[in-house]
Every structure is written in structure tokens, then in C-alpha cells.
């Protein structure tokens, strides 16, 4: 493809500016005048480096490095001091160092039933909540995607609105509803049912998680369902399929990517959930997020807390990688 | 009226009832005179007693002020860093380390909060030992922690906005001799301004709302609003929290409606301008 003449004329001074590799000083000598900042910048694109560098440095410093510290600490030994652990490489004399590589924290996690139990319980709670989210979110997303454009944006706004209000307060609202003398039991009492024990059970945790994460299920599902080619459904109706059969054979298979994205967005944070089980959950069965925080704050065992987080990440690495691949594909696909 | 329409209506009705009944119940009970949240006092309700109590509670007011400050600082810095990262990922093509950058910007979106909190706290402890900064923990450490996860959200918002239109306008400006910085401020920035605004609001809300990460990285002297609310709620139900929730829901509701109207106007203007630009050719 031929470039416009403007572009070619623009290119030439930059190319002949190859000497600019020697930098600013050379440009001073070469031009006998004040440095041409603009050309220097254009040649070296130091602005580009700054643009890449700033967020990069921030994330390395406050995301990657902390993660490496956690990894390192998970192999350390706990001791009564501040900070409460032994360094990995310790100087014992002028010439000798010892390597305190301790796998004991991980062995401890595996041997103590408390940890294995809370891992399994967290996965179970997250999985059930994800399924419930899907069951409630799918019909809603479907109904929103098939509404008129004006109604669609209103419904979507209503889905997102609770997400902007405090998560903590929305979870707290369920305390008043689910208590034994709470609103739901009062209403049920009017028709002679109950009272049911709903607070501090698995049920109340499911309710809390489904309620908090429902927008994360609905939004990806909606953006998938909205893109469907409706002529496919017409074609299938023409060929004699009923609405249920058309749904099962066309809409449902086409919406699988949306279902996967929504489920990952619910499942991953639900495994590490801390606030919801603390307010609504059982006291005899902790979720792993709570175990981690107790280990750190109450027991002050930093190495074991680090080992708990590394183990939690190992559990989540497959769903997280899946999510990232999906996210990158979505962002790349948005162009077309 | 066929069966499918009814099914859709039922799904919407029950879905939105599920989403909104808890919020409505908090709003209603915030006007209840009784201290027992579940008993409606018919004699003296509605009352503004809990609002008065809330507004005279210094602990809550101080925490709210700290939260607002942290959220404003977080949102502003997160928007700058997130916009740069979104720009790099959407426009700079392949470069060394791109995969790592895109990984580091999407990972905080799904990283369990307890892990983010723990790892940042450990970093701050190490830094203090190594270079003596940060001295203790407080405003700065909370803000840094919040910026780190909020910028990931801003990045995604800006990146997907940039991906939604091609770079032909920016290329044209470069062809006409504008410097990259000028292209950014004159072309790219106005185009992604809605995304930047919603990114700022999103970052503000995330910071304002965060409990778990703050609990890890906050010092003894710095208590944010969610931390106060959490400790109150854990001790039992307190009706002034209902009043707080009502105030927050009203502000957010108003803000969302206004920003939705603004966005729609902005979108229309953009569409109109693009149409005009096309018809000029």
C-alpha cells in the first residue's frame, strides 16, 4: 500500500537523523544551535519508555515483588522475634552461611486436618455458589438481552447499581433478613411456616456470595447473549423445532463462553472470600481466607500464613490462567 | 402474550427482587425507632434518630473522612497508571515484557484479597527494615495497596475502550507531524475520556469499599470506614449502620443516574462527530 506523500516527507529527516544515536550532545554539535527536543524525542521515543516504564515499575514493585516475598517466607521457619521468622540465608560466621529452606510449613498444611478441611470447604462453597449464580443469572441475562434497547440499558444499570454501593453493607443487610426473628421468618410466620434457622449456615453463605457476585455473572453472560444471531432461532423454528429445543440446541451452546467467563469471575474470588463467611457463615467451619487471616493476626505465624496463600494460589492457578486467556481474547476480539 | 415473554418477566422480577429487597429493607429500617432491627415500632416511626446518632458519631465521621481522602488519592493515581498501562497494552504492539505486563494487570482482578493484603503488608515490613520507609503503616500504605488493585480495573476499562476503535485517527495525526505526546492529549485522551472518568469512579468506589486489604496494611492510627462498620456489625446489628447504608445508596444512586445520562450524551456526540467526519470525506 502506498503511503501518502506527507508521510514520506515526514520520514526522511528522522531517518537521516541516524546520527542521533549518539544522543543529545551530538545534536548540539551537529546543528550548531539549541537542541531540537522534538526530533530527539521522536527518534528515541523516550516518552514511550516512560509510558511503559511507569505502570511496569509500579506493578513490579507492588505486585510481583510482594508475591516473591510471600513465596520466600513460605519456606522460612517461624521464631519469636520481630519479624517473626528466620531468614532464608543466615550468616553463621564470617565465611559460613546456612540455607534455612524449610518445607515444614507445607507438610504442616497437609498433615493438619483443619487446613485440608477448610480448603475443601472453600472449594465446595465457591462451586455451589457459582452454580446458584448461574441458575439465577442466566434467565436474567437472557431476559435483559432480549429486551428492547432502552429497557436493556435500564436493566443493566439496575444490575450494576448495587455493585457501586458498599459490598459490606449489602452483606450486612442479609443479617436482618435471615435471622431467626428476621424479616423472612416474620413473613413466613404470617402464612404459618417456620421459623427456619438460616443464619450461620452454609445456606446463608451461599446467599451472601450469590448476592454479592451476581453482577459478575450477569454482565459477561449478557454481553455474550446479546451478540447472538437471532436468525438462527428463526431458522430452527422454520425447521420445526420448538422454543425449548431451539434453546437447548442453539442458544445454550453458543453461550458457553459467557457462562465460563461469568463462572470464573464468581468462583475465583469466592474461594478466598473473607467478609461473607465472617458475617454470615458457620463458626465451626472456616473458609480458607479466614484461616489465613487468623494464622497471620492471631497466631502471628507469618510463614504458615504465607504457605496458606501459596497453596490457595496453586488451587486457583488453573481458573486464573483460564480467565486471563479469556480476558485477552475478549480484548483482542473487541477490535473487530 | 406467549409463555416465553412470561418466563422472561418472571426472571427479571425475581432477579431484581433478590437484588433490591435487602437494600430496600435497610432503607426502611433506617427510619425505625426501635433498636431491635427486626421490630417495627409503629408508635414513633418514622424517625431520623439514627441519622442524628450517625452524624454525631466522631469515630464514624473521622473514618469516613479518611476513606474519602484515601479513595480520592487512590482514584487519581490509579487512573494515571491504569491509563498508561491500558494505552501500552492496546496501542504499543508487541514489545519485550508485554505478556508479563498484561498478566500483572489482569491478575489483581481475580486475586483473592487476603493474598494481596498479606503480600503487600510483608512488602511494607521488609521495606521498613531495609530503607526505613514507610515508617509504620497508615495513609500511604493503604493508598499504595488500593492503587495497585484499582489500577488493574482502570487498565481493563481503558484498554477495552481503546480496543473499540482503531488507531486511524492517531496515525493520521502522526502523519501530519504531531508529536506522540500531542497526539495523546489532542486525539486519544478526548476519545477515552468517558472510560477514564468511569475508571476514576470505579477506582474511588473500590478503594472506598475495601475492607480486607485495608485491614492488612492499615496501622493502629488509621481506621477506614469499612473497618469501623465491620467491627460494629460483627458485634451485633446496629441501626445507625442502616442510616449509613441509606445515605450511601442515595449518593450512589444519584451519581449513577447522572453519570449514565452524561455518558449517553457523550456517546451520542462521539457518534455524531464520527458521522460528520465520515461525510466530510
Which characteristics define this entry?
heterodimer, A: 336 residues, mainly alpha, MetI-like fold, 2 domains, two-stranded antiparallel sheet, 16 helices, disordered N terminus, B: 281 residues, 11 helices, 79% helix, globular
Q: Would you write up a description of this structure?
A:
The complex is a heterodimer of chains A (336) and B (281). By secondary structure, chain A is mainly alpha-helical. In chain A, helix 6 crosses helix 10 (202-225) and helix 8 (167-178) crosses helix 10 (202-225). Chain A folds into 2 domains: 22-73, no CATH class; 113-333, MetI-like fold (Orthogonal Bundle), CATH 1.10.3720. Chain A has a two-stranded antiparallel sheet with strand order 1-2. Chain A is globular. Chain A has 16 helices and 2 strands. Chain B has 2 domains: 57-235, MetI-like (MetI-like fold, Orthogonal Bundle), CATH 1.10.3720.10; 237-274. Chain B contains 11 helices and no strands. In chain B, helix 1 (3-29) crosses helix 11 (239-280), helix 3 (58-91) packs antiparallel against helix 8 and helix 7 (168-175) runs antiparallel to helix 8 (180-209). The longest helix of chain B is centred in the last third of the chain and has 42 residues, at 239-280. Chain B is globular and about 75 Å long. The N and C termini of chain B lie far apart (48 Å). The mean pLDDT of chain B is 87. The interface between A and B is large, with 99 and 97 residues.
Amino acid at each position: 500500500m502506498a503511503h501518502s506523500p506527507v508521510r514520506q516527507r515526514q520520514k526522511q529527516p528522522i531517518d537521516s537523523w541516524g546520527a542521533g544515536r549518539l544522543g543529545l550532545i551530538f545534536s548540539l554539535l551537529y546543528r550548531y544551535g539549541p537542541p531540537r527536543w522534538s526530533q530527539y524525542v521522536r527518534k528515541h521515543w523516550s516518552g514511550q519508555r516512560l509510558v511503559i516504564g511507569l505502570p511496569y515499575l509500579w506493578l513490579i514493585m507492588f505486585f510481583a515483588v510482594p508475591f516473591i516475598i510471600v513465596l520466600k517466607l513460605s519456606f522460612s521457619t517461624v521464631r519469636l522475634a520481630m519479624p517473626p521468622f528466620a531468614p532464608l540465608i543466615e550468616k553463621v560466621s564470617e565465611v559460613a552461611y546456612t540455607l534455612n529452606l524449610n518445607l515444614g510449613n507445607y507438610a504442616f498444611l497437609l498433615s493438619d486436618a483443619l487446613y485440608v478441611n477448610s480448603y475443601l470447604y472453600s472449594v465446595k462453597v465457591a462451586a455451589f455458589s457459582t452454580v446458584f449464580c448461574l441458575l439465577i443469572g442466566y434467565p436474567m441475562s437472557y431476559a435483559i438481552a432480549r429486551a428492547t434497547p432502552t429497557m436493556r440499558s435500564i436493566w443493566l444499570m439496575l444490575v450494576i447499581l448495587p455493585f457501586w454501593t458498599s459490598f459490606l453493607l449489602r452483606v450486612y443487610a442479609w443479617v436482618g433478613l435471615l435471622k431467626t426473628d428476621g424479616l423472612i421468618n416474620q413473613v413466613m410466620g404470617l402464612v404459618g411456616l417456620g421459623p427456619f434457622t438460616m443464619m450461620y449456615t452454609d445456606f446463608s453463605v451461599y446467599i451472601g456470595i450469590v448476592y454479592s457476585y451476581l453482577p459478575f455473572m450477569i454482565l459477561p453472560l449478557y454481553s455474550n447473549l446479546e451478540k447472538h444471531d437471532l436468525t438462527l432461532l428463526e431458522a430452527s423454528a422454520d425447521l420445526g423445532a420448538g422454543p425449548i429445543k431451539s434453546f437447548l440446541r442453539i442458544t445454550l451452546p453458543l453461550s458457553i463462553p459467557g457462562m465460563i467467563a461469568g463462572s470464573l469471575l464468581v468462583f475465583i474470588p469466592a474461594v478466598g472470600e473473607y467478609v461473607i463467611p465472617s458475617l454470615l457463615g458457620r463458626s465451626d467451619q472456616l473458609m480458607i481466607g479466614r484461616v489465613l487471616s487468623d494464622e497471620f493476626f492471631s497466631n502471628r505465624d507469618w510463614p504458615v500464613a504465607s504457605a496458606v496463600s501459596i497453596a490457595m494460589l496453586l488451587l486457583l492457578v488453573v481458573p486464573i490462567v483460564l480467565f486471563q486467556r479469556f480476558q485477552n481474547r475478549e480484548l483482542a476480539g473487541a477490535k473487530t | 402474550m406467549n409463555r416465553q415473554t412470561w418466563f422472561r418477566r418472571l426472571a427479571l422480577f425475581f432477579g431484581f427482587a433478590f437484588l433490591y429487597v435487602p437494600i430496600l429493607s435497610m432503607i426502611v429500617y433506617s427510619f425505625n425507632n426501635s433498636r431491635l432491627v427486626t421490630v417495627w415500632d409503629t408508635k414513633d416511626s418514622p424517625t431520623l434518630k439514627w441519622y442524628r446518632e450517625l452524624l454525631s458519631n466522631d469515630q464514624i465521621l473521622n473514618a469516613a473522612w479518611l476513606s474519602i481522602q484515601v479513595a480520592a488519592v487512590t482514584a487519581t493515581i490509579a487512573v494515571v497508571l491504569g491509563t498508561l498501562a491500558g494505552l501500552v497494552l492496546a496501542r504499543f504492539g508487541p514489545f519485550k515484557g508485554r505478556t508479563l505486563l498484561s498478566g500483572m494487570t489482569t491478575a489483581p482482578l481475580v486475586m483473592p484479597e487476603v493474598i494481596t493484603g498479606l503480600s503487600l503488608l510483608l512488602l511494607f515490613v521488609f521495606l521498613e527494615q531495609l530503607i526505613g520507609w514507610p515508617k509504620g503503616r497508615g495513609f500511604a500504605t493503604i493508598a499504595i495497596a488500593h492503587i495497585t488493585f484499582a489500577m488493574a480495573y482502570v487498565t481493563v476499562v481503558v484498554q477495552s475502550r481503546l480496543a473499540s476503535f482503531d488507531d486511524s485517527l492517531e496515525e493520521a495525526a502522526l502523519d501530519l507531524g504531531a508529536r506522540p505526546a500531542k497526539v495523546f492529549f489532542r486525539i486519544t485522551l478526548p476519545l477515552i475520556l468517558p472510560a477514564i472518568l468511569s475508571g476514576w469512579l470505579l477506582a474511588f468506589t473500590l478503594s472506598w469499599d475495601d475492607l480486607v486489604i485495608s485491614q492488612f496494611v492499615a496501622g493502629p492510627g488509621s481506621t477506614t470506614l469499612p473497618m469501623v462498620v465491620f467491627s460494629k456489625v460483627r458485634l451485633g446489628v446496629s441501626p445507625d449502620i442502616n442510616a449509613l447504608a441509606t445515605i450511601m445508596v442515595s449518593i450512589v444512586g444519584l451519581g449513577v443516574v447522572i453519570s449514565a445520562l452524561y455518558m449517553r450524551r457523550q456517546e451520542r456526540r462521539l457518534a455524531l462527530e464520527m458521522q460528520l467526519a465520515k461525510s466530510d470525506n
